[in-house]
Specification:
The complex is a heterodimer. Chain A is built from nine helices and ten strands. By secondary structure, chain A is α/β, with parallel strands linked by helices. Chain A has a domain of 158 residues: 3-Layer(aba) Sandwich (Rossmann fold), CATH 3.40.50. Chain B has a two-stranded antiparallel ribbon. Chain B has a two-stranded antiparallel sheet with strand order 3-4. Classes of the chains: A alpha/beta, B mainly alpha.
């Protein structure tokens, strides 16, 4: 069986700085896969190469067997890749619902009409998606006035417009309160399982990472230093050293962190 | 051989004045991020001031050069005053707003110059000791040209010293790289901006002063140099002084030799070079990529274009009723004026579609208006086409031109987009102006009258009204259409739009063609209304007039272009009998943009806010 997403020897240099160095990994459909690492480890560079914002210097990315290396984010959208950015990107001059409607009109190829009125286009479908991410009440608010946590939800809803098979989420819960984080991640897990959609995410909140990821990849200085299920990562000496320094070791925390906040 | 060497040396000499002006603009842009339209007028003022001073003290070598320097410094002080009174208040304002304000300053100072020195062209004085000529390989070269050739590199070296060997220069470079960071470090930005503006204007004035013995002084030199300076700065790379030097050399040589090969087309040549450079190197020869631009979310939220409410609907009903009843008043002149205003509003509304929903600042939108007018005029003149056919084909032809122009322009963004649109408009203008055998050149094409059925004043008035209002309503509808949403999505967040599968550049291209075609319709109707087509229809001034109209109205409102263009045409008409009407207009613009940063359509909101503050 081919993996949903596989990266093979992905590298990116900025001048003399090696941001990402020969990264390789595979993830399956329906899997929650987290990339973590300290600041500057190369997580976002990695994401931007997978999501079409940066072209890798070398290496190969494939989506369900198809080579998608260096494709634009527009081309990736056409292949069912949804994207949430580290700094939420929405259309601030439009209402939440209109944001979704733009996505839906694009999906159904209805963006070029000049005579039709856009406000009624796919309104119900947009509202349905908004209720799904818990934003049903905010449909008619301008995106520019939303809180950061709500913008992250709009992004999630936007990436669901095209019924993606892969979601790339760069810090999906940044700027949210602990309760909101759990609600959002519960939703993401449910979507991943129900729709057989792979979710690749980064996160600074370790509760979210260890509570929701099926597998975790740890990066440091552009390299992979560990990969495995949460329990294995938590016990990994090298990972502890990266986060806490050589002289500290952690007692394994019993059980899942889900529910702790 | 000798002839070509002398030609090259002459080119080098004109490069110096161009470089001085361009360096000033580039420094100001680098630090303040303001594209200063008033820059050309400082160049002109430098020449006039130097003329006055040299006629008093210019008989000795020392007196002459001191006069040039004192002239430049005094104009630098004028620049400083402008910075303190106008620019200081608008550093945080949207780009378009700054453009309008500085253009207002341009108009004011232009008329101040007219008032002080009068309308006649002034002959430049002879520079003492440099009034003869030297012989180079058997050909004469004015001695003063040699002085100019030395002057350019000398100033470049001086600027290098200033920027790389003084603390002030280090601050200027830091501000050019990252303005926010500099502020966070506790640098006095106000002082820095003021001194930079002083230096920039003094350099422009010095450029004007230095070329005085060669070219004299006239009232058009400000606008003329502005176009060339923009080209130089954009080709060299915004904010790069060595880039400006390189580009000034390139452009000046191009002019020196272009005039031999292609005497009618030097302007076209210059702008074509700019177009080619920008397509190959979108940031200019030595320009660096700008950091990610701050998203001005506040401005974007204001440009939200809610669905029309009761007020707006009633306004439209009233306006249309008034227009329909106007011929009953029996005032023939009112009909002519209303036609002119309506067509200008249609032009402004089509530009607004690009500026507002599209976020595309076009400096050359009148090109499509002119294309429409010339398409109609050429069809009538050479194909004896009927008016109806011409009115159908003209927007299509203007749209076709927009397909070509847009293909180049949408590859760029921000200031570079604006400059390239200006460049193409200038190319088209020069073609029309210089291809005399076909277009009639400056004399224009005459005898473009409506068909007999529409020759009656009232009938033609209704035709114009129906088509113009139809066009304006179509543009408004487009903003609320799926395509309008796509345009706004691309403006709001390119990143998100692309991740949602939108081809943003393609959407922008189509938006340009759509707006261009409607501007073309306005132009064609204008040609039939006036019975003629002239190069002015697509000149820089026409483009700027329409920009100002949109800015006055405010980009964040769909009624903005209506009010703005209406006020502008009315003011132009009322004031045009006065001798200094452009200056008065400039003053009006500056006062309006300072008092109502969101345009006329923002006045109610401004009053509401003021009332809330008082309450």
């Amino acid at each position: 069986m081919t993996a949903l997403l596989s990266a093979d020897g992905l590298s990116k240099h900025f001048g003399g700085v090696i941001a990402v160095d020969a990264m390789s990994f595979e993830m399956a459909a329906g899997e929650m896969f987290a990339i973590i690492g300290p600041n500057g480890a190369g997580k976002s560079t990695c994401f931007n190469m997978l999501g079409g914002q940066l072209k890798p210097d070398s290496g190969r990315v494939s989506l369900a067997g198809e080579d998608i290396t260096g494709m634009t984010s527009r081309a990736l959208w056409g292949r069912g890749v949804g994207r949430a950015f580290q700094i939420a990107a929405t259309f601030p001059s439009m209402t939440v619902c209109e944001n979704l409607q733009v996505g839906l009109m694009r999906r159904y190829g209805r963006l070029w009409s000049i005579l039709r009125s856009a406000r009624k286009q796919y309104r119900e479908e947009a509202e349905h998606l908004l209720r799904l991410v818990g934003l049903g009440e905010a449909a008619d608010k301008l995106c520019g006035y939303l809180s950061y946590g709500d913008l992250k939800r709009v992004e999630l809803a936007l990436s669901l417009v095209n019924e993606p098979r892969l979601l790339l989420m760069d810090e999906p819960t940044a700027g949210m309160a602990p309760d909101e984080r759990r609600a959002l991640m519960d939703l993401v897990v449910r979507l991943a399982r129900e729709r057989e959609c792979g979710v690749l995410f980064t996160e600074h909140d370790m509760d979210v990472v260890f509570g929701y990821a099926d597998r975790i990849l740890v990066m440091q200085s552009g390299r992979r230093i560990a990969e495995g299920p949460p329990d294995a990562i938590r016990d990994n000496r090298q990972v502890q050293a990266v986060y806490l320094g050589q002289d500290f070791s952690l007692e394994p925390v019993p059980g899942s962190v889900r529910g702790a906040a | 051989m000798g002839f070509y060497v002398v030609q090259a040396l002459t080119g080098l000499a004109s490069a110096s004045a161009l470089f001085l002006a361009a360096a000033g603009l580039s420094i100001i842009f680098g630090v303040t991020r303001i594209v200063n339209f008033a820059h050309g007028v400082f160049y002109m003022l430098g020449a006039y001031m130097a003329w006055t001073l040299t006629s008093q003290f210019g008989d000795s070598v020392l007196g002459f050069w001191l006069a040039l320097i004192v002239a430049s410094l005094s104009i630098g002080v004028v620049g400083l005053l402008v910075e303190l009174t106008v620019l200081r208040r608008i550093y945080q304002a949207p780009e378009l707003f700054q453009l309008t304000a500085t253009f207002g300053v341009f108009l004011i100072l232009q008329d101040v110059t007219l008032a002080i020195w009068g309308p006649e062209d002034l002959l430049g004085p002879r520079a003492p000791m440099l009034d003869g000529s030297v012989t180079v390989l058997g050909h004469p070269l004015p001695s003063y040209d040699l002085a100019l050739i030395v002057l350019g590199p000398l100033v470049l070296a001086g600027l290098w010293f200033l920027f790389y060997r003084t603390r002030w220069g280090a601050l200027v470079r830091a501000a050019t790289e990252d303005r926010e960071m500099l502020g966070a470090l506790g640098v006095n930005q106000r002082l820095l901006f003021s001194t930079v503006f002083f230096l920039g204007t003094a350099l422009a004035a010095f450029g004007g002063a230095a070329q005085l013995p060669k070219g004299g002084a006239d009232l058009l030199m400000g606008l003329n140099i502005l176009a060339s300076v923009f080209v130089v700065v954009v080709v060299g790379g915004m904010g790069s002084i060595p880039g400006a030097f390189l580009a000034a050399l390139l452009i000046a040589q191009l002019n020196a030799f272009g005039i031999l090969i292609f005497p009618q087309g030097t302007l076209v040549l210059m702008f074509l070079v700019m177009a080619v450079v920008l397509v190959i190197r979108p940031k200019g020869l030595l320009g660096k990529a700008e950091g990610a631009s701050r998203i001005e979310s506040r401005a974007l939220i204001e440009a939200a274009y809610p669905a029309p409410g009761v007020w707006e609907r009633s306004f439209w009903a009233l306006a249309i009723a008034a227009l329909a009843l106007l011929p009953l008043a029996g005032d023939a002149f009112a009909l002519v004026l209303t036609k002119d205003i309506l067509l200008f509003v249609l032009l402004a509304a089509s530009l607004h579609f690009l500026l507002g929903p599209g976020g595309l600042v076009s400096f050359g939108h009148a090109a499509f208006f002119g294309c429409g007018a010339y398409a109609a005029a050429l069809l009538v003149t050479y194909a004896e086409s009927s008016m109806v056919l011409a009115l159908l084909l003209a927007p299509l032809l203007a749209g076709c031109v927009a397909i070509i122009v847009g293909w180049f322009c949408v590859r760029l963004s921000g200031v570079y987009f604006a400059m390239l649109t200006l460049a193409f408009a200038q190319v088209l203008w020069s073609i029309v102006f210089q291809w005399t055998s076909v277009t009639g050149g400056d004399d224009g094409l005459l005898g473009v009258w409506p068909d007999t059925w529409a020759n009656d004043d009232t009938v033609f008035y209704y035709l114009v009204t129906v088509l113009a209002i139809g066009g304006i309503l179509l543009l408004r509808q487009a903003v609320h259409s799926p395509f309008g949403f796509a345009t706004r999505a691309g403006r709001d967040s390119m990143l998100r739009a692309e991740a949602l599968g939108l081809h943003v550049k393609q959407v922008q291209h189509v938006a340009m063609v759509f707006a261009g075609a409607l501007a073309g319709l306005a132009g064609a109707l204008y040609a039939f209304s006036k019975g003629s087509a002239f190069p002015d229809y697509m000149g820089i001034e026409m483009s700027f007039d329409s920009l100002i109209a949109v800015m006055l109205g405010g980009v964040q409102s769909l009624l903005g272009p209506l009010f703005g263009a209406g006020l502008f045409s009315w003011a132009a008409h009322e004031l045009s009998t006065l001798s200094y009407w452009r200056g008065i207009l400039g003053l009006l613009i500056v006062v309006l943009v300072l008092a109502f940063p969101r345009g006329l359509a923002g006045i109610p909101a401004a009053f509401r806010a003021a009332r809330e503050r008082l309450a």
